[in-house]
User: What shape does this take?
Amino acid sequence: MSSIDIAVGQRYESKDDLERRLKLLTVRHQFDFDVETSTLTSYVVKCWVDGCLWRVCASTQGESPAFYVRIYDSKHICSCTERSNRSRQARPDILGELYKNFLGDVGPAVRPTSVGIAITKQFGIKMNYWKSHRTLKFAREIGEGTPECGFESLPSYLYMIRRSNPSTVTHLQIDEFGRFMYVFLAFGASVNGFPFMRKVVVVNSTFLNGKYKGTLLIALAQDENDDSWHWFFTQLKLLIPDDEGLAIISDRHNSIGKTIRNVYTLAAREICTYHLCKNILGRYKGKDAFRLVKKAARCFRMTDFTAIFEEIEAINPVTPESDLSTKLDPFAT
Ligand SMILES: [Zn+2]
Assistant: This one.
């Protein structure tokens, strides 16, 4: 626990840094402090119990925002019971740091309840499930870094990927304020290998998990405006040129279809049979249509395909009121 001790002469980059250290120290030693003075150049705190002599005085030097500890009276004259009665600094971020550094593991098997029990035992802090959960979340972030740090590290991460994977192509798109928008990544092995593959590209999209999933979900909904797909296909086209023999497979996402038609004017746009069959199953439950469509999708000969398609037409005849395109088209809205 010595690493969080206060000592005369210590330098802290800012008042916030010093304050954080004081919070860690006082929670660890089960008491609390009151701020006596807090200005741009001076910071004085004392034990919250009236009449106790524990106090820390710090101040700046010259123009620098750094704070130096000038006086540290580390002896309490209050009683243990009295000073441990208040623990306003015991917030989940502080507890998370103490837990991570001094108490235990934060691996995936660790449950919030066991974190709460350990903290109560060690620091005398009352914990409920929600507070334990938040504490564990903070403790885990100390090891992994926060999602914000992750976004911040993207440029150097991409640089390292390019360095260790020659021919790798990366594009990081930021907005006018330097905020993250999109990232594109194609590994060198894929880039070099594609010319030897069949000219088929399968695209799909998924939601992201983690802290920003909410924001990204909304962004994705907004991206039905095609911008992100357009950006993606424009990057892709630099690596995989448009070609009459190229097929791009996707689900029936409106933006994808529209963008492919705009960016890849020569390539054929096809529908993924997995998504197609899923939609047929939903719409024609218990009907033969599903079985037949699945069979048709796996045909290698045109004659086989035509035969099965005639069967489909037989159970869903085209009439003037309901033509096949609306009746059988599982995507028709
Ligand atoms: Zn005291």
About this structure: The radius of gyration is 31 Å. DSSP finds 15 helices and ten strands in the chain.
